[in-house]
Amino acid sequence: MAKLHVSTTINGEPTEFLCEANDSMLDVLRGPLGLTGSKEGCGSGDCGACSIMLDDRLVCSCLMLAAEAEDSDITTIEGMAVGEKLHPLQQKFLELAALQCGICTPGVLVASKALLERNLNPTETEVRYWLAGNLCRCTGYDKIVRAVLDTAAEMREAAQ
Amino acid sequence: MTDIQYLAPHTLDEAVGAFAAAAGTARILAGGTDLLVQMRAGMVRPGLIVDIKKIAEMTSIEETADGGFVVGAAVSGAVLAEHPRFGKVWPGVLESINLIGSTQVQGRASAGGNLCNGSPAGDSVPAMMAADAIVTVQGPNGRRQMPVEAVPAGPGRINLAPAEILVSFTLPPRPPGSSDAYLRMIPRTEMDIAVVGCGVSLTLTNGVCTAARVGLGAVAPTVLLVEAAAKALIGSKLDTAAVDAAAAACSAACRPIDDKRGTIVYRTKVAGVLLKRTVGIAADRAGRA
Ligand SMILES: Cc1cc2nc3c(=O)[nH]c(=O)nc-3n(C[C@H](O)[C@H](O)[C@H](O)COP(=O)(O)OP(=O)(O)OC[C@H]3O[C@@H](n4cnc5c(N)ncnc54)[C@H](O)[C@@H]3O)c2cc1C
Ligand code: FES
Ligand code: FES
Questions:
Q1: What's the pLDDT band for A125 if we cut at 50, 70, 90?
Q2: Which domains does chain B have, with CATH numbers?
Q3: Whose CA is nearest to atom 4 of ligand 3?
Q4: Which ligand 3 atom is at minimum distance from the Cα of A99?
Q5: Which of A21, A136, A138, B161 can pair with A100 through a Cys bridge, CB separation 3.0 to 4.6 Å?
Q6: Nearest ligand (C-alpha, residue A41)
C-alpha cells in the first residue's frame, strides 16, 4: 500500500507529509514532523496532553487520524509563542510555577488559550470544567487554575 | 506496512458504495472518539475507514419549516451547542450530548457515533429516545427511517443492515409547554461513564402532563424507552403519586449489571431517583407554575 499524501497547514505553514491510514495526528506530529511539544499521555482521549487546535476547535490529536488533516488548519503548542515572545499564558505559568514535570503543560496551555479566545472572563468553575480533560499528576491543578485566571485578568486589563 | 485504507467522500452515495464494496471490513469514522480508541486497543481492525465528515448532510443542522430539527449524524457536540436555537428547543438533548467527555472530546464526538457505538451507557441515547427522534439511514437499498429506540440491539450492536450509514436525527416540532431534560449519575462530576442516565421529554397544558416520554440508560443491555413510566405521568399534574409511580416503573424496567461503578440494587434505586429529578427539571423548563 502506498502511503497517503496529506497537504495541510500547521502553525500557519503549508505542510505536506506522508502517513499510513491508521496513523494518528499525534504520531505524525511527533514523528515525521518533529513537533514533539504535543505529548502522548494515554493515547485514548483521557489526558489531554496531546491537545491541538483543528480548524479552531480544541481536539485530542491522539483521537484524530493524520489523514483527516487534509486541507485543514492545525495549531500546536509550537505555534503559541511568537518567535521568542511567549504568550501571556506561557509567561504566567512560569511566574506562578503552574507546572512541575511539564508533561501536561503543552496540552493545558493549548486548551487554556482556546478558552480565553472564547471567554476572557471565565469563572473558576468554568476554567475547571473546561480543563477537565487535561490531567495533571503533579500540581494538584490549583496553580494551573490560578495562572489561567490571572492571565485572563491581565489580558482583560491590557485590552482596555 | 498496513493495508488499511482511508476515504473521505463528499457524497453519501460514494460513502455507501465504498462501505458496501468493502463487505464488512469497513468502519465509518465520525468523530473517532470511540473508533480510534477501539482501533488502538486492537478491538477493531478495519480494512477501510470511511470518514463521513466531508458529506454536507452529515454535518449540518437544519430547523425545518414546522419547527422541527434535522441534525446530521456527525455534528459534534461543540457545534450543536453553538446553534442559536437548538438548545432552546431541546435543552435536554443538548445537555446529554454535551456531557460526553471533555472539551476536547466535544470538539469531535457526535450523537450518531454515540448511538452507533451501541453502548448501553451512551449519554445522548436516552435523551434522543425521550425526544421521539427518528433516524434516517441510507444503504445500498436506499433510505429508510426508524425510531431511535429501534436502533440499539445489545452491547456494541445496532440494527443497521450491512453498509447502512446513519444520516441524521429528525426531532419533531414542539407544542407550547414542552421541554426536556437529561441527568446522569456518575461518581465524579466530569469524564466518567453513566451509572444510570435518564432522559425525559414532556408537554404541560394548563398544568396537566399531556405527553411524556422517558429514556433510561446504563441499566440494561440496551438503552430503554420506558413506556410504563411515561404512562404514569400522562394525564397527571405531576403530583407526588404520579411521579412516584413513574419512578417505580423505571426501577421495574431495570435489568442492570453489577460492576465497579454500581451494583444492581444501587442502579435500580438510582433509576427511580433520577426519574423524579429529571421530571422536575423538564417540568420547570416547560413552564410549570
Ligand atoms: C475521554 C472520553 C470520554 C468519553 N465520555 C463519554 C461520556 O461521558 N458519555 C458517553 O456516552 N460517551 C463517552 N465517550 C465515548 C464517545 O466519545 C461517544 O460515544 C461519542 O458520541 C462517539 O461519537 P464519535 O462521533 O466520536 O464516534 P466514532 O468513534 O466516529 O464512531 C463510533 C462508532 O459508531 C460508528 N459510526 C459512527 N457514525 C456512524 C454513522 N453515521 N453511521 C454508522 N455508523 C457510525 C463507527 O464506525 C464506530 O463504530 C467518551 C470517549 C472518550 C475518549
Ligand atoms: S494522549 Fe491524547 S488524550 Fe492522552
Ligand atoms: S506538571 Fe506534571 S503532569 Fe502536570
A1: very high
A2: 5-119+134-171 (3.30.465.10), 178-288 (3.30.390.50)
A3: A136
A4: 1
A5: A138
A6: 2
User: Residue B259's pLDDT is what?
Assistant: 83
Answer whether residue B159 shows pLDDT above 50. yes
Q: Mean pLDDT over residues A27-43, rounded?
A: 98
Out of B33, B53, B107, whose CB is closest to A58?
Answer: B107
Name residues 101-140 of chain A within 8 A of B (Cβ).
111, 114-115, 129-134
Distance CA B89, CA A84 (A): 48
Residue ranges of the domains in chain A? 4-79, 88-159
CATH 3.10.20.30 for domain A4-79, yes or no, is yes
Q: Give the ligand whose atoms come closest to the C-alpha of residue A50.
A: 2
Helix count (H) and strand count (E) of chain A? 5, 5
| Cβ–Cβ below 8 Å for A45 and B37 | yes
Q: Which of B37, B43, B103, B191 to mutate to test the interface with A (most CBs of A within 10 A)?
A: B103
Query: Does the beta carbon of A63 lie under 8 angstroms from any beta carbon of chain B?
Result: yes
Give the global pTM: 0.97
Pick from B8, B104, B190: which is nearest to A60 by CB?
B104
CA distance A103 to chain B (A): 17
